[in-house]
Write a structure and sequence with these properties.
Elements (H helix, E strand, L loop, with lengths): L7 E4 L3 E3 L16 E2 L2 E6 L2 E7 H7 L5 E3 L4 E4 L1 E3 L11 H8 L4 H6 L4 H9 L3 H17 L2 E7 L6 H15 L5 E9 L10 H19 L4 E6 L6 H13 L3 E6 L7 H8 L3 E4 L5 H8 L4 E4 L1 H6 L8 H7 L3 E3 L13 H12 L3 H7 L2 H6 L17 E4 L6 H4 L6 E6 L2 E2 L2
Helix pairs in contact: 5-6, 6-7, 7-8, 9-10, 10-12, 13-14
Length: 415
């Protein structure tokens, strides 16, 4: 659905978090960029002015006024890592994990990613679209206005193309702007288990060229993990993607360290995601690069992992950090960026201001969006969330509470 640009001026907010500060908090720098006594003018879907309320009102006397009534205004969330197009949820696997069966053991029994592959292959494109729409509505109601969506549950040329076409159609059917990623390297499908090299050949020689020719994806991603794709396979796939204009991303160092963060930095990837078992060398590599460290605490929480990605260490080293949901049917079935903020603070050592910036401007950086997305700076899209909270710091404190008052996309109220 193309959201028609609208104009309005937002007044009487207790705080406006513009999220234009540095990734890391310091004595003189606030990542959330919290301002008081300011108004935000959105004209034709774009932030045109932000400043003292009386001045903005004088400049825009005829705009519709949105009275924030002492609430807090932030940019819309940019959820930079999701798998929101899939078939059914895998509830039965959660029940097994609750009895102590590990995730990788469930995968060995035929569950995990390949269970979703079998399911998705049996569904048509129309059905995938219809199943995804209510999930995207949940994301929107949780304040997400831009989201990356990956393929990766098809693992055949036909089914990967089908998924990416569904994502393209969904972009026209609802307000969230969707950024498509090709993840044919999500797993080796069962029919190639005895011939991994042939599947990598298929990815490089058939899938990637087909996806690029059809203009169906912006990024190419690979799940680099022991037992999934190794370094050499990952590098070959990502370099093939680069050769066809697809920017690299990595599922890196999620459950076991494998040098994924280092490879991401070496390739100049847009982001290295997960990082639950990143090494000191990996932290240093990301800090010295432009590659964004995307942390997915919902996954670690849902899988019951005792070790969490080192958000504090990454920030202190100088890396840019993003927070995202990893919304998927197996290891993180949540669309709630609000919960992710809290987990970033409570489990990864981030401050409320750092977590908010990571979920907005940080997510935009992970998607290489350069239009001001994830901020409320002049020239940025008019994507805003109004919270029933007296401060930005209260948002992660109110653990997943239903405190969103309204959501705007390009100045149009959509929630």
């Amino acid at each position: 659905m193309t959201t028609l640009p609208r104009s309005a001026v937002f007044i009487n907010a207790a705080e406006v978090a513009v999220c234009t500060g540095p990734a890391r908090a310091s004595e003189n720098a606030d990542p959330a960029g919290v301002l008081h006594g300011v108004a935000v003018a959105v004209v034709n879907g774009v932030v045109e002015a932000l400043g003292p309320q009386d001045d903005v009102l004088a400049q825009h006397p005829h705009l519709e006024r949105v009275n924030c009534a002492g609430r807090t205004l932030t940019p819309g969330f940019v959820d930079s890592h999701t798998h929101a197009v899939f078939g059914r949820y895998r509830v039965e696997e959660y029940a097994l994990r609750c009895t102590g069966v590990p995730y990788m053991e469930i995968a060995r029994r035929g569950g995990g990613i390949n269970a979703s592959v079998r399911d998705l292959r049996g569904r048509g494109e129309d059905e995938l679209v219809e199943m995804a729409l209510p999930r995207l509505d949940e994301m929107l109601r949780g304040g997400t206005t831009t989201a990356e969506v990956k393929s990766g549950y098809g693992l055949s040329t036909e089914s990967e193309i089908k998924t990416l076409r569904a994502i393209r159609r969904l972009n026209d059917l609802q307000p969230i702007e969707l950024i498509p990623t090709f993840l044919g390297g999500h797993e080796v499908p069962p029919e190639y288990r005895d011939n991994r090299a042939a599947y990598v050949d298929l990815l490089v020689e058939e899938m990637i060229p087909a996806v690029a020719e059809a203009g169906l994806a912006r990024f190419c991603d690979v799940f680099m993990e022991p037992g999934v794709f190794g370094r050499d396979e990952t590098e070959r796939i990502l370099r093939a993607g680069l050769a066809h204009g697809l920017r690299p991303k990595l599922h890196a160092d999620e459950l076991e360290g494998s040098g994924g963060a280092e490879l991401a930095a070496e390739l100049g990837a847009a982001s290295a995601d997960h990082l639950g078992d990143i090494s000191e060398a990996g932290i240093a590599a990301l800090a010295a690069s432009s590659t964004v460290a995307t942390l997915l605490p919902g996954t670690l929480f849902f899988l019951g992992r005792p070790r969490w990605a080192p958000g504090r260490a990454l920030l202190d080293a100088g890396a840019t950090v993003a927070l995202a949901t990893d919304f998927n049917p197996g290891s993180s079935p949540t669309p709630s960026m609000h919960f992710i903020l809290t987990a970033g603070c409570s489990r990864m050592g981030m401050s409320p201001a750092e977590s908010l910036r990571a979920a907005t401007a940080g997510g935009a950086a992970a998607l290489e969006l350069t239009d001001g997305r994830g901020t409320l700076a002049p020239g940025a899209p008019g994507d805003l969330v109004l919270w029933r909270a007296s401060s930005a710091a209260e948002i992660p404190y109110r653990l997943a509470a239903p405190i969103i008052e309204g959501v705007w996309k390009a100045g149009e109220r959509v929630v």
